[in-house]
Amino acid sequence: MSQELVPSGPKLEPMPNGLVNYGVTGNGIAVIELASDSAGKPLGAGAQGPNTYTHEMMRDLDEAILRARFDDDVHVIVLTGHGEKFFSAGASIQMLNQVTPKFKYFFCLHANETLSRLEQTPKLVVAALNGHAVGGGLEIAMAADLRIARKNAGKTGLPEVNLGVLAGTGGTQRLARIVGKGKAIEMMVTGNNISFEDAKELGIVNEIFEGDADTFRRDVLDWAGQFCPPNKAAMATGHIKRAVQSGTEVPLEYGLAIERELQAKLFASHDAKEGIAAYVDKRVADFSGN
């Protein structure tokens, strides 16, 4: 990678249920790592799981998102999976086979709320697809703003139709918004998974990085560092995200109003003053994130 911004990843600590690990780099990147076995239980020492999610994992993920949101020293969030085989294989089928339809409904509702919280947090979110991202795994990734995949590391798709259900954690809605209605319906009714390269052609994946799992993680952190101060005005990055995420879901005149309000906040920021002054002075801006 061209930028040398992150010498190493942060030390990750488990969230309360032990299903999500969390840490923050020195330059302000919060790393959220999904880590579970096929039953959605914590991984044993040295184990690599499909990182399937349960209600307990979603509660861990929810708490990690809130922790990153409220931390003024966090400017970018990187979401990834433990190990080198899976980003996430989606919801634990073992769990779904054991719970009641009512529980499944509230499980989906809470997952919707959690991913909406991720999507609406005014900080750039990057999903680092270190391995397969299928079913609910892709649904989680689509709630991120940008998706970076590891070359030849896995496939992605929404194959829930093969279980007699649909992608119920935002998949039908977010995929259609990314690839269009026709292609989204085709992908979901066939249930076929596609390569990361094909996903990039469709706009599901933004970039593909080469390398093993460790190199991939370092490169993603390095790449994400470009959006942290002093390189970039993180507040502007977050407000661009908010303008797009919220503004495109309302009529144009309301979207323009959202844009104006966010711009007004940016004009009053330290970084806007610094960016404009640096341009006039013909120097590199030194952004602080405020």
Description:
By secondary structure, this protein is of the alpha/beta class. The chain has two domains: about 15-225, Alpha-Beta Complex (2-enoyl-CoA Hydratase, Chain A, domain 1); about 235-280, Lyase 2-enoyl-coa Hydratase, Chain  A, domain 2, CATH 1.10.12. It has eleven helices and eleven strands. The protein has helices at about 55-70, 95, 100-120, 135-140, 170-180, 180-190, 195-200, 215-225, 235-245, 250-265, 270-280, and strands at about 15, 20-25, 30-35, 75-80, 85-90, 125-130, 130-135, 145-150, 155, 195, 205-210. It has a seven-stranded mixed sheet, with helices on both faces. A four-stranded mixed sheet has the order 5-7-9-10. Strand 3 (about 30-35), helix 1 (about 55-70) and strand 4 form a beta-alpha-beta unit. Helix 1 (about 55-70) runs parallel beside helix 3 and helix 5 packs across helix 6. The longest helix has 20 residues, at about 100-120. The two termini are about 25 Å apart.
